[in-house]
Specification:
The complex is a heterodimer of chains A (273) and B (375). With 273 residues, chain A is mainly alpha-helical. In chain A, 71% of the residues lie in helices and 0% in strands. With 375 residues, chain B is α+β, with helices and mostly antiparallel strands.
């Protein structure tokens, strides 16, 4: 990177280093050859923690459970977010900053409080209708959709508001119905917004601990919960090694999705005027 | 191969008919009882400044907006209640509105696939359209890779490709530079006549409307001011508003004083007798090129409008001089005169007579339908 402004360049670099520093530290710690955490390491380095990972049933169970949960959260949260954004645009609700801001209000409630409230609510509701609503995948999914929706709605809104009404009119005018216009014109043009919504929802869900704490089913835990349970009894680099695996997995998944949904195309740049 | 340009499958027994269209937003009426007919194969221009209701009319025809009352008939069929996708119209947008995620070919074929046209026929029609508009080489490009003029051609091709009963053009040339604008408007006109395409063209540019239209409808604040051929509007503008749009730069108020029609500027009698019948006319107008400057004394019985004026400015225009003059005996009334080179010339400060013969003098009324909007 060539720059005519050395100070700006230096500050940018510093910010990058600070925000990315945890990653090398994490990798470094996962290689400590000792079963307790002391910095700097006293026993040298080893890859043993990685080789022993397959024996950590809870952590691996948590990983697949979390991936599954995050994927479904991304799907539901994005669909709901996009629908809500279209609803606001079509005038289902009077357009004002109020709706958008109300939608983000849940973010200000501490997740742990939300989780507890959800638990109590679902428990009572289940009691009333004679069904067990807690301790299953669906209540957990609902919780995760709830906390990711403000984000997906925000991103989808930005995309939907940027959609030119004339493009949809052109499609209608050329004989396509509302539904076809949505799937052939609106949605393809929203691809960047939809994709970033889904990505964000996935990452938020995957890393979330608090919402899951109260809602996980016995015997089925998410990765963050499994990790927390692990470090309650031992403090060795296993968790760090697991986190590195998790990180790698996410990076690969995102890169793959990016390739599949193609952001390299020039058309997102819009029309030349 | 069947000629794509003939359209035996479509019956334009009738063109477009707008009957008493009325549209309001809130309490604000933007279209008052508009009635217009466009014969099959003809091009009608809706002319007026922004806010006159021309784009609203277009949106009503396309079905993008509902109206308070009125009926729209196309090809002898009442389409008032039809949604946009059921109306046999195709629109060319001001900003082109090309689908940025589709190639030129897919854009032009978009409406044909909606008609369930088979793939081969679609491909043939698209190729034909691209050739027709001289963009055959651009088929695989995306709209973002095209210039404004090229996008405009794609947009036209996309609309014409579906063989609509009615082509709607919403200021399609206003985003292009002057040279390109003149070039493409002639092409649109040629294409429209060759295809015998019924069309409604929205514009705020008087010159554009004159060049391209069979008929022009001038709109003012939601009222239809005048409707006629370009020649009729140019030669016989009925209202001061239309005259102003048609390049009649000198429009003066008149009123009857002592049984004669006289020029009155800002409520004061400017003296000059107007050699025209007094009817309901409230103004007279004349083009700068229809007025002459004279320094000699004229026979007072001469059947012409004679105005005493002081030259305030002159500009050389190549074949003529253009003079700005202040009328005497009136406060602040100013007129423009275009005097051919070779005739009498004057300099700023000179007191002259400005003569307009009856042939160049246009009797005008304030406004056709709108109450109390004197221009």
């Amino acid at each position: 990177m060539k720059t005519q402004r050395p100070l700006l360049g230096a500050i940018t670099l510093l910010v990058f280093v600070i925000s990315l520093l945890p990653v090398p530290v994490l990798i470094w710690m996962s290689l400590f050859n000792q079963s307790y955490l002391v910095v700097p390491p006293v026993g040298g380095y080893t890859l043993d923690w990685y080789f022993q990972l397959p024996m950590q049933r809870e952590l691996f169970g948590g990983l697949t459970y979390s991936l599954n949960l995050a994927a479904w959260t991304a799907v539901f949260s994005t669909v709901l977010g996009v629908l809500a954004a279209f609803g606001v645009r079509l005038g289902a609700v009077k357009r004002s900053g109020l709706v958008e801001n109300l939608m983000t209000l849940p973010l200000t409630v501490p997740n742990i409080v939300l989780s507890m409230a959800l638990y109590i609510f679902l428990f009572r509701l289940g009691d009333m209708i004679g069904l067990s609503l807690i301790g299953n995948f669906y209540s957990l999914l609902a919780g995760h959709v709830l906390i990711t929706l403000p984000w997906t709605f925000r991103l989808a809104s930005a995309g939907v508001l940027g959609l030119s009404e004339d493009l949809e009119r052109a499609s209608l005018d050329l004989g396509r119905g509302r539904l076809q216009t949505f799937f052939r014109v609106s949605l393809p043009l929203l691809k960047p917004a939809v994709f970033s919504s889904a990505m964000l929802a996935f990452i938020f869900s995957f890393g979330n601990l608090e919402i899951s704490l109260f809602l996980v089913a016995p015997g089925e835990t998410t990765l963050p919960v499994a990790m927390m349970q692990y470090v309650e009894t031992r403090l060795d680099p296993t968790v760090a090694a697991m986190a590195v695996v998790q990180l790698t997995l996410i990076v690969v998944l995102l890169a793959l999705a990016n390739k599949l949904f193609g952001f390299g195309r020039t058309f997102t740049g819009g029309l030349k005027q | 191969m069947k000629d794509e340009m003939t359209r035996p499958e479509q019956d334009h027994s009738d063109g477009l008919s707008l009957r008493n269209l009325r549209k309001s937003y809130g309490g604000n009426v933007v279209l008052h009882d508009l009635s217009l007919e466009v014969g099959r194969g003809k091009l009608l221009s809706l002319l007026g400044p922004s806010g006159c209701g021309k784009t609203t009319t277009l949106n009503l025809i396309a079905g993008f907006a509902g109206m308070d009352s009125g009926e729209i008939h196309l090809g002898g069929k009442d389409i008032t209640a039809d949604p946009p996708n059921r109306r046999d119209t195709a629109i060319v947008f001001q900003n082109y509105a090309l689908f940025p995620h589709m190639t030129v070919i897919d854009n032009v074929g978009y409406g044909l696939k909606a008609q369930k046209m088979p793939g081969k026929a679609t491909a043939a029609r698209v190729t034909k359209m691209l050739e027709l508009l001289d963009i055959g080489a651009l088929g695989k490009r995306y709209p973002g890779e095209l210039s404004g003029g090229q996008q405009q051609r794609v947009s036209l091709a996309r609309a014409i490709a579906v063989h609509p009963s009615l082509l709607l053009l919403d200021e399609p040339l206003s985003n292009l530079d002057t040279k390109l604008r003149q070039e493409i408007r002639l092409e649109i006109r040629k294409l429209q006549q060759e295809l015998e395409q019924t069309a409604v063209f929205v514009t705020h540019d008087q010159e554009e409307a004159l060049v391209i239209s069979d008929y022009i409808a001038v709109l003012n604040k939601g009222w239809l001011e005048q409707h006629g051929t370009p020649q009729e509007l140019w030669e016989q503008p009925r209202t001061a508003y239309v005259a102003d749009f048609m390049g009649v730069e000198n429009i003066l108020e008149v009123s009857e004083v002592d049984g004669q029609l006289r020029i009155t500027g800002n409520g004061r009698n400017a003296g000059a007798v107007v050699p025209l019948q007094a009817k309901e006319q409230t103004h007279v107008g004349f083009r700068p090129s229809n007025a002459r400057i004279s320094k000699a004394n004229l026979d007072s019985a001469s059947p012409a409008l004679v105005l005493e004026a002081t030259i305030t400015g002159s500009a050389y225009m190549g074949t003529s001089y253009r003079y700005s003059c202040d009328l005497q005996r009136s406060s602040g009334l100013s007129i423009q005169v275009e005097q051919p080179v070779g005739e009498v010339q004057a300099s700023p400060g000179d007191t002259v007579k400005v003569i307009v013969y009856p042939a160049g003098l246009l009797p005008l009324v304030a406004s056709a339908t709108a109450p109390s909007h004197a221009a």
